[in-house]
Amino acid sequence: MVNFKVEISKLIAEQVADLTAEEIQSMIEVPQDTKMGDYAFPCFKLAKTLRKAPPLIAKGIAEAISGNTMFAKVEQVNAYVNMFISRESFVGDVVTSVLTEGAEFGKTNLGNGSNVVVDFSSPNIAKPFHIGHIRSTVIGNAISKIYRALGYNVIGVNHLGDYGTQFGKMIVAYRHWGNREDVINEPIKTLLEYYTKFHVEAESHPELEDEARETFAKLEAGAPEEKELWQWFRDESLKEFNRVYDLLGITFESYAGESFYSDKMPAVIQEMRDKNLLVPSQGAEIVELSQFGLTDAPVIKSDGSSIYITRDIAAAKYRMDTYHFVKDIYVVASQQNLHFQQLKRIIELMGYEWTKDIVHVPFGLVSLEEGTMSTRHGRVVFLEDVLNKAIEETRKIIQEKGVATDNIEETAKMVGVGAVVFNELSNNRIKDYVFSWNKVLDFNGETGPYVQYTYARCASVLRNAGEEAAAKAADPSAVKAEYLTSESAYQLARLLYQLPEIIIDAGDKYEPSIVTRHIVDIAQGFNRFYHDEHILVDNEEEKTAKLALVLAAKTAIRNGLALLGMDAPERM
């Protein structure tokens, strides 16, 4: 696909000796109002070196480049050179590029195969995989897919919360009130009941807290009975978690959780001691960070057991030694901002310059309409229940409306799960929000089902055209762009053209909602084209060109949805 900014900067560079093509490219603007051109070049910066008024400079440049066939029109407006790209050449180039690249459209090779670690989802073993986990899970999955599309080799890590004092609590609760059969039948719900009961009982029996700490210390020391119970809780929890990941279509390259680093921590702790970073404090050992405006970070508890920052330091060092990452991205709630500031500062104090490549991607919190979620008090909404209810409601809508689909169950899953994911990725990730069943299951407006329906509409148009006509439209050499110069065709092509840059921007900002919003724009652009144009016309060349644009829109929507972790149904 032609990079018009690059081509324009080369043309202008021939007229302006004092700036490089790269400098000119950085100055080129894309006007919000297309009446001001597709691209605009401001000449204020040139006034000093050329010793001319900016409008005169703009006039000279406009006259010099206006004869290029790339432009339909070039005009000088005050200090700006406004450039209007030839619609025929622009739309023709866009459609040809999308059809040629197909599933690769939108991808670039910026990463050149460099390793990026994305740490996301990471639920706690033996606790519910609830609606609060959806943020890290789907945001992290989308960021992973975006970075793959940018040419990076992504290692998705599910850093399971499978270690720490809570396991001492869980084991103590199981021993006091547990039943093996109940755990086997409903592992997470049963273990949640035990965990909740522990905190209720500990209010009147504080000695339970001491028992839990002692039990975790035994687990960390490798005591057989504690380790066996812990492994059982972990295995049963993963079975439940994987049902959710299967529904979401999410996989990981690594499930190395906190426990994986238990045998790697002693060397890291010794290194910190050797570098005089650990300071005794009330029986514990800490890293003093107050001189950096941060709270001091405990690394070793008074009973000798580790804390999660200890395991995170070991994990970061292991990842660099193993993967030699260019980025280690942590998709973790904004509540943990201080933790990651401490982590980065400690790794920097250890002398590792790659601390700059550790990136915390924070996000806002999810609360329930009845208040804040609390695992301790058993007030949660299970993520699996949300996904299954969305599928069930979608199935009802399909049956009630008599939607023609090849497979009701498959379509209900695509659309139901897609509605939940799209809802999650529609807004800026840093915003807090209140989980509402009504909002998640509202399929009207700028939603996932709307975009998926638009994709299915594209597929329907191509089916109605017939196999032969659709096949011809898929051939880039058969497209006659002179039939694609209407306003709606041109605006749709502009949106398709922007997709690769949109993906780059989303990667730079770790913000999947940038892609989400753009896919909605493409869907709306296609629906305007569909409304304004008669596509299946008698003129074969015109029909082929318009079907080619339909196929290009369909391809872009599918590729965009794939980056969000969503499927696109052919019939809906």
How does this structure look, described?
- With 572 residues, the protein is an alpha/beta fold.
- Among the domains are: 4-85, Gyrase A, domain 2 (2-Layer Sandwich); 387-563, Isoleucyl-tRNA Synthetase, Domain 1 (Orthogonal Bundle).
- It has 22 helices and twelve strands.
- The chain has helices at 4-13, 21-27, 47-50, 54-65, 87-101, 134-149, 165-177, 180-185, 187-204, 207-220, 224-248, 265-274, 308-323, 337-349, 383-401, 408-425, 437-440, 448-465, 467-473, 487-509, 513-532, 540-563, and strands spanning 39-42, 71-77, 80-85, 115-119, 153-157, 278-281, 284-287, 297-300, 327-331, 358-361, 366-368, 433-435.
- The strands form four sheets. It has a four-stranded parallel sheet, with helices on both faces. A three-stranded antiparallel sheet has the order 1-3-2.
- Helix 20 (487-509) runs antiparallel to helix 21 (513-532).
- The radius of gyration is 29 Å and the shape is globular.
- The two termini are 31 Å apart.
Key attributes of the depicted protein:
Isoleucyl-tRNA Synthetase, Domain 1; 572 residues; Gyrase A, domain 2; four-stranded parallel sheet; 22 helices; alpha/beta
CATH top level label of the domain at 387-563: Mainly Alpha
Tell me what portion of residues adopts beta-strand conformation. Answer: 5-15%
Structural category: alpha/beta
The major β-sheet equals: 4 strands, parallel
- CATH-derived topology of the domain at 387-563: Isoleucyl-tRNA Synthetase, Domain 1
Give the C-alpha Rg.
29 Å
Strand numbers in spatial order across the main sheet:
5-4-9-10
Mean pLDDT: 93
The appropriate CATH architecture of the domain at 387-563 is Orthogonal Bundle
Low-confidence stretches: none
Percent helix range: 40-55%
- Quick one: overall form? globular
